[in-house]
Amino acid sequence: MTKLSVNINKVALIRNARGANYPDLVKIARDCEEFGAEGITIHPRPDQRHVRYDDIAPLKEVVTTEFNIEGYPSPDFMELVIKNKPHQCTLVPDLPGALTSDNGWDTITHKNYLRDIVARLQDAGIRVSLFIDPVEDRLYAAKETGTDRIELYTGPFAHQFNISREQAVTSFAEAAVICNKIGLGINAGHDLNLDNLSYFKKHISGLLEVSIGHALICDALYFGLKNTIQMYLKQLE
Ligand code: PXP
């Protein structure tokens, strides 16, 4: 079973464009769950251009599936996450002004730093996932940080998918074998969509969760949110 976690950042971006609470992020999160989403992901960034820090507590109150907060572990972010206790925290190495996450952690260079952060989150009862590229040494180093899971950064897979899907998935499939061998749970995300999702899922054994935002919200403009979530779930069957 691979869970679909819907990233609702893009919905917040639309809301913020007009300054009023419309669309209502809390209602969207509840509706996503009602339509079949098995998790809700948010990625509050320091400039709060989409999901804002004050969205976290109201969302935590209503989300009944898995609540996943992504972000760079700055002191502010850590405080918010530990206070609100999501089920999972996905740590990304983005610098404050990043447009989007476009690389995973160098878990070798930052092993000690991450070990400390991971332990603090786990002590608060929060499962931890590290955003990471499918690089063998980095997977082993990730294991040594004590993280529960890794989230494979699938941007490069998605970009290469239309050129050669076999080549695009190879390093990810190999990474999954290693993760399964050393006991790291596998999540994945970035640029997954209705074209590439089922192929990715088919080749990644033990894929526990995908978090999808941009393409899913874009597809919802054409198909509606309910249909779209059902279509993504179908790709994961
Ligand atoms: N995972 C991480 C760490 C991300 O930063 C994002 C984008 O916010 C996603 C997954 C989802 O990517 P997309 O919006 O392309 O589906």
How would you characterize this protein structure?
By secondary structure, the chain is an alpha/beta fold. The longest helix is centred in the C-terminal third of the chain and has 18 residues. It has one domain: Aldolase class I (TIM Barrel, Alpha-Beta Barrel). Helix 5 crosses helix 6, helix 6 runs parallel beside helix 8 and helix 10 crosses helix 11. Strands 1-2-3-4-5-6-7-8 form an 8-stranded parallel beta barrel, surrounded by 8 helices. The chain binds pyridoxine-5'-phosphate. The site of pyridoxine-5'-phosphate has 19 residues, from strand 8 and helix 10.
Topology:
Blueprint (H helix, E strand, L loop, with lengths): L2 E5 L1 H8 L8 H10 L4 E4 L13 H7 L3 E6 L3 H10 L3 E4 L19 H13 L3 E6 L3 H10 L3 E5 L1 H7 L3 H18 L2 E5 L7 H7 L3 E6 L1 H10 L1 H11 L2
Parallel strand pairs: 1-2, 1-8, 2-3, 3-4, 4-5, 5-6, 6-7, 7-8
Helix pairs in contact: 5-6, 6-8, 7-8, 10-11
The site of pyridoxine-5'-phosphate has 19 residues, from strand 8 and helix 10.
